[in-house]
Amino acid sequence: MRINKTTPGRLFNGTILLMSIVMLSSCAFAPYNRIISDKDPYKQEASVKMKQLVRGYSNERKHRFHYLPHYTATVSYLSFKSFEGNEETIIEIAVTTHISDREITPKLYLNLDNEIFELESEDYVYKEFNRSSTSTSSTITTDTETKKDKETGKDKEVSSTSTTFSSTTDDNAYQLMRHRYYIPNEVVKELRKANHIIYRVYRGDEGIDIEPDRKDRRKIRKFFRSI
User: Alpha carbon of 66 to those of 59, 62, 70: distances in Å?
Assistant: First the structure.
């Protein structure tokens, strides 16, 4: 794996957030921002895992292209250590977008306190799926007509009300793109103390910045200090 390290003069001005994947499971019950430790006697390994849901924006929004959509992505942190002592640390970034011919490229740039580390994806997963949404509306109609009262012989108004229901279903096609990056010890040490964290990925030539908020950054530091 190749790591390039540079120090930029001015990077990532403005507020840039990133990613959310809305996955197929409900977000309300997903274990986001929880550090989960486990020892597996079958695989003969110990693991530490954490998942974060982050919203991100195209860097082109800074150039007044405010109509560009935001992105939703999931960032997963994984650490595995075999009972023999072999260990590996992984970051997975998964981004969901509408179907297009632009995919997330393999390179990941980590901006850790304005030092840039470049990592190459070791594994890539691509999936397409449809998501349906249904909306229901109702229309209430009131009709009034004049009829003669049988007892009095006088005219009187009689009203009747009817309700009509209609539903519309929209089918949208999405693509899920997930890259897996193996993190060397040099980067792990930086993540244990980094106050400023941005993940930059590219969708074609469009940059997408993934910037965890303060609470997420505290959890990231805690995760890497625990391994």
Answer: 10, 8, 10
